[in-house]
Amino acid sequence: MTRARTLPLLFLLCGSVLAWAVFGESPGRAAVILLVFLLLAAAHSPLVFPRSIGAEEARRLSALDGWPIVFWRPGCKYCLRLRVRLGRDARRLHWVDIWRDPAGAAAVRAVNDGDETVPTVFVAGRPHVNPEPAWVRSQLLPSA
């Protein structure tokens, strides 16, 4: 849990320090710096992603509804890229944070030669490492 919040907190801390350093010279510039770092912190926060569930629950739900499973971790730029490009369709996948779920991390290591390479997307039980967002969208079943 702490690792997931480390990068966003670092962005907030660095942004605050930089904004404070330039505040005396230019309050407007300080506000812009703080805003940029706030946006970076938000983008790397686990809050940007749909609610994470455990790997076992994701497998069970995927078997019922056919939705793909995405194994991800906070701070991963490729995971963020996938999430942003999927837009609202991201809610039609099961998301497993490998830093919160040891079984999820083990599943990713099992298909990536021991590495925790994310995003790893399981579609119909088959793993796909860092797939293109358009491909992932094409794998989604039509809405009922």
UniProtKB/TrEMBL annotation:
Alphabetical UniProt keywords: Membrane, Transmembrane, Transmembrane helix
TM ranges: 29-49
Keyword Membrane: yes
Residue ranges of domain Glutaredoxin in the record: 70-126
One Pfam assignment: Glutaredoxin
Signal peptide (residue range): none
Listed name of the protein: Membrane protein
Organism expressing this protein natively: Streptomyces cinereoruber
